Structure formats: C-alpha cells, structure tokens
Amino acid sequence: MAVVAALALAAVLAVRPLASPDLGYHLAYGEQFLDSGRIVDHNPFIYTLPVGLQREGRPTGGDASAAGAWPVRPAPGPGCWYDTEGNYRFANANWLSQVFMAAAWRTGGPTGLCLLQAALAAGVFAAMLLAMRRLGVPWPVAAAGLMLAALAAHTRFNARPEVFGFLLLAIQLCVLSRRRVTWPAVGALAAMQVVFVNCHGYFMLALGMTGAFLAGRLAALAWRGLRPANMGYERQLSADSARLAAALAGQLAACFVNPWTWRLAALPVQTLAFMHANNIAGSGLTGPGGHPWSYIGEFFTPFAGPFADAKATYAFYALLALATAGVACSAARRRWDWLLLIGGMTAVSLTMRRNIAPAAIVVTPVALEACCSTLRRFWRRRSPRFRMEVARETSGLLIVAAAMMCYGVVTQRFYFADRSPARFGVGLSRLQLPLDAAEWLNRHAAGRRVWTDYTSSSNVHYFAGREAPVRDGPRSGDRFEVPIVTNTWAYPPEVMRRVLETYVDPAAFEAAREQYGFELVVLRADRATSALVARLAADAQWKLVRLDAQHVIFARAGFPAPAVTQEGLDVPAHLAAIRSSDPVPAGALHIGGLTLYHLGWLGPAAQAFAAAAAEDPSYYEAWNMNGYCLATLGAADLRQTGRKDKLLEARDCFRKALELKGDYAPAAANLLLVEQQLAGNRTPGAYAD
Question: What pLDDT shows up at residue 74?
Fold first, then answer.
C-alpha cells in the first residue's frame, strides 16, 4: 500500500496542463517529420538569422531584409556549423521525441499529449521500483525512495523530450541492476541506446552508468586477486566484466546511429565544454553583459534565486544526504560500482538545476540499496515482531504523507505554496501560453511580421499563423513555420544576445525594428521584458492593442486596430477573464496585476492585487504589491492635494504582508518609506516591488 501511494503521488505530479515555452518548437518539428518524412536541422524561417547564399532564387538561413546586418557570420554554438550554402545547421538531439509528441498531439490533441507525459513519468517510477526490488530494497524503503525521487524531479515532468530520456535511463538502470549480466541484456542496452541518442542529449549518462558498473566489476576482480581464490565467484566477475565491456562498446557504437553520426555523438561533450568556458552552468541570471545562455533558468544553480525555498530543493537536500550515506556505505562494502555511480550522478546534479531529475532517478535506488545492505545484518538481529511493527508504522506514515501531498496537488495547494506555475490537470494553460495573443494575431494580423520575446517565441510562432501541412515540403511563396527560437542550439548565441538586448536597450530595439520592419510586438510581461513593456506603453509610435493576464500585443500607431487604454479598460470584466484563465484565481490575478504594473497602470493593478489578496488572504506578495501601487499613487496625491488616504491604505497592506511573513524584505522596506512619508519626511528612495 505504501508503494501504491508513492506511485500515485508520482502519477498526480505528472498530470499537468501543457505550459512549456518550448511546446510549439517541439510540435512543429515533429509535425514537419510526420508531413514530409524529413528531419529538420536548419532554419530558413526565422528572419533574425544571418542570410546564407542564394539557392533556387531564394535566400536561405534568414530573410533578405537581414542582408548587411551580419558583416561577419556570428560564431556557431556548440555542435553547430554553417554548411556550404551558408545555412546554420545543428544536430537535433530531440527529433525522435518530437515525432512521438507530435503524433500524440495529432491523435488526442492537448489531452493526448498530457496523457503521454504522464505515462512517461509513470514508466520512470515503475522502472525505478523494479530496479530497487532487483537490488533488494525492502518495500517500505522503496516507497520512501519513490516519493523522494518524485519530489526532487517533479519540476521536470513537462511535455519535453528529456522525459523520454528519464524513462530510458531508468530502464537501463533496471537492466544493469540484475545480479548477473546476460547477453540478451547486452543487446537490450545497445538497442535502447540507439533510441536514447535520437531522443535526448542525456544519452551520455547511460554510458557513464554502464561504465560505473564495469569499473566496479574490474575493481572487484583486482581486489579478489589479493585475496584467497574463489574460482566460481571470479569466473562470474570475469564473465560480467566481459559482457559489460561489450555493452559499453555497443552503446558507444549506438551513439553514432543517428542522422548526424559523429556530430550528435559529440554534441553533449561540446556543450559541456562550451558552458564551462562561458561560466554558464550553476550560476544565476548574469544580466546585461553576461552570456545569453545564462538567461535560461534551467541552467541556474539549484540553491539560489526563486528555487531556494521550493519543495523540490528541499527534496534535493534530502537526496544529497542520501547520496552521502550511500557513498560511505558503498566504500565500506567495497562496492566501487555503486560508489562511482552515486558520486558521479551527484556531481552531475550539482552542475545545474535541470540535472537534478536524472540524478534522483539513478541515485535513489542505488544509494538505498547501499545503505540497506550495510544495515541488513543489524536489522536481522532485531526480533520479527519489532521488524514488522517498524515496517507497518513506516508504511502507514508514508501512506498518510503521500495522501496529503496528493490532495495538495489535486487542489493546487502543493504548487501554489511554491508559487510554481505548474498545475494539476490536462489541456493547455491559458495563463502560461500566449493562446489569446495568438488568436488575436490570427484574426487581426495574418501575414504580418511579428517581433516577440524569447520565452514566448516558440508558442507565438506555432499557434499564430499556422498554415496547412504540406506533405512535400514548403511550396514556393508559402511560409511553413517551423519555429526553433527557444532551442538555443538552433541559432548562434549572438542572435539570442541581440534579441535580449532589445529588452533593455532602446537603440537595439529601434535598430531591430528598422532592420526587420515588424509592425507588431508580442511580449510576456515579466521582469525580463518590463523595461520594454513600459517603454512601448509610453511611446506615441506604438499602441497597446491586446491585453490578457500575462501577454500584451503592441502595434505601430497606424495599425488598423483599436487601442486598449487604461481609461477605457473594463477592469471588472478584465479581472473576471483573468480569474478564469487558471485553476488558481489568486495566482492568476497576481500575475495579471504584475502585467498592469509593468504597463504603468497602477490603479487597475492595485485592484488586481486586492482581488488576489481577497481570493487568498495569506498571499503576502499580493498585499505588498497592492500597497506598492497605493503608496505610489498616494505619494502623487500627497504632493498634489495633500490627501493621505491611499498612503494609509498602503501602510495597512504592508503591515498585513509582514504579519503573514515577518521576514519579507520588500514589505519591511516599503512600510518604513510610507511611514516616513506620512510623518512628513522626504521619501529617501523608491518603493520595493
């Protein structure tokens, strides 16, 4: 029952609406293969790429309007290259996963893809359970291990190719966990590696896993050479070593069985070297002047920024403690394969946040077995009654804990407590995906050139202006959209840098507008784009034409669409639409308030934050932001009319935020400032958002 409860927790954590910023990119590439049978590894469709040579009368690798913008071709990213015609090429390590995702999408729509991602995660934990049982981990301990791995890895349970990699990694661990390595297992490992290398770049971890088991067998053989002979055991070690060596050789050869042969085989190593050389992995957002890849959150360190207080991070701390105990027990028992595997995967997990999930899948079963085997003799000395009582009580506690967390997931409290954008359910997330913006573009701006931010780009290109599939490839004059803009390997890093510079540098944005001639700008209004959103909102050459909870559309002043203004906004209707965009109304209203705040519309923003706090009175961030808007408006009232009512309301909001979270620094700083203003002193600084 404890194991069933743990598996249920893992399952509900994997049932979530589609919200990945890469969703459009993956689906478009998979659909391209389903329609044409061709694997796409270059991109003539995104107009920010440098222009290649002429082919069949058309520019390739970009758009003619970009000519002259790249006097020197920007340096390619890791594993990428320019072909003889000037096309920017990359080895698409995810192409097979994308085909499966597109097939699920076409078969069952968003629900079909949601069920696929849940099935993949369920397969991961089923394979983990089988591996733990093969290793000899007791049922209650296995249940605890499943829960720990699910909590540490759940942030990566999205519709992304890496989940295919998690499943293949777990299955290979299950095969290697058998006491004896057989020739059928050798063949299975090689065959799975062929699939793995075409699904995700994590295939290198499988080589390391097999290599660790091989090194452990060889070390055991060397140790046996110093001990009295046990010919039967040594023959088994020798046979296992030979078969593991054959498996590793087969897996190495399988790495070249892909459309790009050696290029894809070398891609993970080249990527690691590139990230190390540019100080990307394991850092935080470096801001302007840093490498553009450092903007990507999944490369951040697990211990800083918005991830520091998340449940997944606390689970990762527990995983590190388990790994430490596993290493010590492995060394004590001279199980060098376990030691190498636990130590190596733990080191991988510490490099960046995205690597926690595969480490949890591998480390948990092996470390638990190392600890259990070390304590087994002590445990067997206890009375059968004592052992049964401990097993029952432990299982009961695990069942209760899993049931409580499942309830929290289903009611969304589990995610909202972490301020996570994830939700329980199926379908598409209207809050996280630019679906409303894409619908507006389809109705009002078909065929118009659009500029969008990095995070929204894949889905804006996919959901807006999609043309009917063409089975024999793009026809003359057609734009068969295959958006790759959120795939960092698919274009030079310098292209990404120029896009990010438009967020903060007015000159860079204006240069891009003149160069590419776009009429519309679609932005996800967040901290990254806040400066650009505020600038466009105040620029007479641009007007806001579409506003939803998190995305805004600006058009040039002469564009034939009515403007959305602060004065003309129907705030109650707008807040009602925001409420309906997400299963957690308080979270949606807070995000909607932030969008209004980035626009500089503090009055409507205050109403949105007040509505969020009314939905959830414990939402201290909403109380603080409501106070921020009221205090900023109240400061203007104080200067113009001498009225202090808004400042008094703001003070109450800051006090409420501090009642809920006493160490919330923005509210503490804001309370001090507003009290100084009410006392008639000059405000020494700006309020903290």
Answer: 84
